[in-house]
Every structure is written in C-alpha cells, then in structure tokens.
C-alpha cells in the first residue's frame, strides 16, 4: 500500500467527519427554530413542518456532497490506477 | 466492495449495454403507464373510491404548483407530476427484494437533471421568446451574466448530486448494516429510507418547479404576478 492510497483513505474519512459537523449544527438550529414556531403558532404546524423537511434536506445535501467526495476518493480516485 | 459509481452491464442488445437500473426503469415505466392507462378508462362525474384517490394525487400536485408558481397548473402538471411519481416509486423500488433503486445510479439522476435543465430552457423560451430568455441572464445588470450562466449549470448539477447521494447512501447503509448485523436489523433503516425517498422526490419536483418558475416569470411584468396572487 503506497502513500497515495493511505492519504486518500484518510482524506475520505476527514471529509465525511468534518463535513458532518456543519450540517449537524445547522439541522439542530433549524429544528429548534421550527419547534419554537410551532409552539407559538400550533395552527401553522403543517406549513412549518413541510418547509422544515425541505430545509433539512437542503442542509443535509451539504453532508451528502462530502460523502460523494469521499466516495470519489475511495472508488474513482483519478490519481490511483 | 462494489463501487457505487460504476455501473456494470447486465446484458447487451447489439452494441448497447443494458444495466440493472435501465431494466428496473423499464419495468416501472410499464407499471406506472399501464396503471395510469387502466385506471383512467372509465372516469365518471361522481367518482368511485379509486378515482377519488387518483384525483387526490392530481389535486395535491396541482395545489403545490399553484402555491409555488401562482399561476394555473395545467402546463406544468404533466411534467412535474410525472417527475415526482417516477422518483418516488424509483426510490421505493429498493424495498422489493432483488431490486436496486434506479436513482441510486448516477446515470439515472444525470438523465433526470438533464431533463430538468432542458425543460427550464424550454419553458423559458416558450414564455418570453429566445431573445427574452437570453436577456434574462443579463438581469439585473450585465455584470451578472457569467454568474447566471454558471448558476444555471451548477443548480442542475446539485440536483443530480443531491438525489444520487441521498438514495445511494441509503442503499449503502442498508447493505453495510445487513452484512454486519444480520437479517432483520436493517428494517428501521429501510423505513428511514422510505421517508428520505419521499422527501427527496418532493424536493426534486419542487426545485424543478422553482427553476421553471424563475425562467417563466422573467419575461412577465410584475403586475400579472400580483393579480394572480390576489385572485387565488
């Protein structure tokens, strides 16, 4: 196993683990804000939760980008082969 | 481990390699189109149980389009509805044993994103003409020209990566848990995957709708927007 492979694996791990921090914090804030809104206005719960789901999926996309980068490093690395 | 980015040909028809995802897509096309054809043979003014369910689906799609675009949903209903139903059932197809969701392969998602990209141009040109649509790239001022061009490419790309990443990671997680833990352990993950699949289908359709709405509303004066908003 040469250095390039080791660095690729380490890079993939770091990409996923560091890239998960931001979206995790952001999702926590989004859910907290939505809970707050529902507690204030329970009649708007449907709209709020629908928008919340869309927003969460948007935020989650950031983590998914990191996952795709990690998979590229592991399975389709242009510098290996 | 098998790479999620590489598709292996299942069999070939002449020079064309056919993958698993393509066969599953064909099967879904047959089932969905066949059901759509059979269930709409006998439409009545006083709907039965089945027709009520179908009308509920169409009404929901219409409502979403009306909420997002503030116009009549008729020109967009077929495209957005088909997109939503196809992605929804493609994501849920993974629940059947032996079938992998076609959207877990990057080619299917690339095709869907390309369809959305072209349809944005199509609806934009149809509503405001070729020159009007091209001029919308230079709004609000010509300095934004390269930025708007790049944006129209990157947002299609992010549609592609979002759908692919979500569905593929779900398939991956279920596979890993299955190989580590055993037979019935992945069931909660599969339930979560159903939820994710539905949300991703909804988001894909809504984002396509928002992009089309952006391209269409460029050519229209502001007053028509407020008119339809007050009337709705």
Q: What does this protein look like?
A:
The complex is a heterodimer of chains A (81) and B (232). With 81 residues, chain A is mainly alpha-helical. Chain A is built from two helices and no strands. In chain A, helix 1 packs antiparallel against helix 2. Chain A is elongated, with a radius of gyration of 18 Å. The mean pLDDT of chain A is 87. Chain B is mainly α. In chain B, a hairpin with a 2-residue loop joins strand 1 (9-13) and strand 2 (16-19). In chain B, helix 3 (74-92) packs antiparallel against helix 6 and helix 5 (145-181) runs antiparallel to helix 6. Chains A and B meet through helix 2 of A and helix 5 and helix 6 of B.
What are its keywords?
heterodimer; A: 81 residues; mainly alpha; B: 232 residues; two-stranded antiparallel ribbon; 7 helices; 72% helix; 4% strand; disordered C terminus
Distance between the termini of chain A: 13 Å
Q: Give the helices and strands of chain A as they follow along the chain.
A: HH
Q: How big is the Rg of chain A?
A: 18 Å
Tell me the distance between the termini of chain B. Answer: 54 Å
**How large is the count of helical segments of chain B?**
7
Oligomer: heterodimer
Number of helices of chain A: 2
Give the class of chain A from helix and strand content and strand pairing.
mainly alpha
Could you tell me the mean pLDDT of chain A? Answer: 87
**Total strands of chain B:** 2
Largest β sheet strand count, sense and barrel closure of chain A: none
Helix and strand composition category of chain B: mainly alpha
Q: What is the gyration radius of chain B calculated from CA atoms?
A: 20 Å
Net shape of chain B: globular
Global shape of chain A: elongated
Secondary-structure topology with pairs:
The complex is a heterodimer of chains A (81) and B (232).
Chain A (H helix, E strand, L loop, with lengths): L2 H38 L4 H31 L6
Helix pairs in contact in A: 1-2
Chain B lengths: L8 E5 L2 E4 H20 L9 H21 L4 H19 L13 H30 L9 H37 L5 H31 L4 H10 L1
Antiparallel strand pairs in B: 1-2
Helix pairs in contact in B: 2-3, 2-6, 3-6, 4-5, 4-6, 5-6
């Amino acid at each position: 196993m040469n250095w390039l492979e080791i660095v690729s694996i380490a890079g993939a791990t770091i990409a996923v683990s560091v890239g998960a921090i931001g979206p995790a914090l952001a999702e926590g804030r989004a859910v907290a804000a939505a809970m707050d809104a529902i507690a204030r206005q329970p009649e708007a719960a449907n709209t709020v939760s629908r928008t919340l789901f869309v927003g969460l999926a948007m935020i989650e996309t950031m983590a998914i980008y990191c996952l795709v980068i990690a998979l590229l490093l592991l399975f389709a690395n242009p510098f290996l082969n | 481990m098998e790479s999620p980015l590489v598709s292996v040909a299942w069999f070939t028809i002449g020079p064309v390699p056919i993958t698993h995802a393509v066969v599953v897509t064909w099967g879904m096309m047959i089932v969905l189109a066949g059901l759509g054809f059979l269930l709409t043979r006998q439409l009545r003014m006083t709907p039965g149980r089945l027709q009520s369910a179908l009308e509920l689906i169409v009404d929901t799609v219409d409502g979403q389009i009306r909420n997002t675009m503030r116009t009549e949903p008729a020109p967009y209903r077929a495209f957005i509805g088909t997109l939503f139903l196809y992605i929804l059932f493609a994501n849920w197809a993974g629940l059947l044993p032996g079938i992998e969701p076609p959207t877990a392969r990057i080619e299917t998602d690339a095709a869907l994103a390309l369809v959305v990209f072209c349809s944005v141009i199509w609806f934009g040109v149809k509503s405001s003409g070729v020159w009007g649509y091209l001029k919308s790239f230079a709004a609000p001022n010509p300095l934004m020209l390269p930025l708007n061009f790049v944006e129209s490419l990157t947002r299609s790309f992010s549609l592609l990566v979002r759908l692919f990443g979500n569905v593929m990671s779900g398939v991956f997680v279920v596979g890993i848990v299955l190989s580590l833990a055993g037979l019935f352990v992945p069931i909660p993950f599969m339930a979560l995957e159903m939820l994710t699949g539905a949300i991703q289908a909804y988001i894909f359709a809504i984002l396509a709708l928002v992009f089309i709405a952006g391209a269409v509303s460029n050519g229209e004066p502001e007053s028509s927007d407020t008119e339809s908003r007050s009337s709705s």
